[in-house]
Structures are given as structure tokens and as C-alpha cells.
Amino acid sequence: MAGRARTGSGGELENRRGNPPAHLTDRAFENVTVTGFVKELDPYYREASVCVAPLLTGAGVKFKVLQAMAYGLPVVTTPVGAEGIAENEPKPLLEFVTTDPGAFSDGVVRYLQDESLRKRDGFQLRRWMENHYDFEKNTVQKALLFYETFYPDEE
Questions:
Q1: Which superkingdom, per the lineage (predicted)?
Q2: DSSP secondary structure letter of residue 3
């Protein structure tokens, strides 16, 4: 999961994937940092402008996507990344959900270039999280702890 993309000249993208493949770690990409697994994502969410989650496999709700939404980050993801999130809402909650590489990258660029869109969507996602998850009881944090306890090697 790419955890950070910042605006600015050229932008910056950090890949926080658990075990990045050699074709990513062996190559140098301008404005891209591949760090691999990090224990604590909170500092990166606080600095991020957008959550980029190009997930192609998995099942159920993706807690890292929910956590990004709780931080008020707009999300660009695939149908796998959006699975289980607001599926019963009358209109789609996530603006950019696609498997098309061009449309996916267009969504990331659009958020990075359009601050008002980024803030509007991020605010709406944060509000949705507040209405659907009990932050008083740290619902998301408890779910993440459960996941990390039973699936420590998963990303």
C-alpha cells in the first residue's frame, strides 16, 4: 500500500508495502521511496495528502484504507481496496475506485493537483468514519491490533 503522496514540485510517493518486490527495491525512481514494512503508519498518515491503495488481492475490509479515511485522507484504490466499505450507501463514498492503470493514476494526480477536491473528499470520508465507527472505544485501533495479533506476517 502506498502510504504517502505529497504535493509540491514533482510530488513524492512512499511505498509502505510489507515486502516490496526486487523490481521496486532494485530500481531508483525519482520522487519515490520504497521503505517496505513499517510498524506505525500514523506519522505517515499525518503527513500524507492522499492514500493510494492499488490492492489486487485480499478479502474483506482493508483496515489501512479505513485508517487513512479516519485521518481525513482521500483514497484512490481498486475494487479490492474498497471492498466492504460503504457498500450500502446510496452513492459511492470513494471517488476513485478502478482497476484501469490510467484512470487510477489520473485519480492520484487529480487529488494532488486539486486541493479543494482533496480537502472536500477527505472531510467527507472523515465524517463518514465518525458516523460509522466508535472512536471513543478505538474501534479501528482494536481491529488493527486484532489483525496484527493473529496475522503478524501479513501486510
A1: Bacteria
A2: E
Q: Which amino acid is at 117?
A: L
> pTM, whole model, 2 decimals?
0.72
Q: So where are the chain's domains? A: 2-150
Q: Give dist(CA 88, CA 140) in Å, integer.
A: 20
Q: Average pLDDT for residues 17-32, to the nearest whole number?
A: 69
How much helix, strand and coil, in percent to the nearest 5, is found in the chain? 45, 15, 45
Start-to-end CA distance of the chain, whole Å, equals 8
Please give the CATH number for the structural domain made up of 2-150. Answer: 3.40.50.2000
What nine digits make up the cell of 46? 499525518
Tens digits of per-residue pLDDT, 67-119? 999 999 999 999 999 988 877 777 778 889 999 999 999 999 999 999 999 99
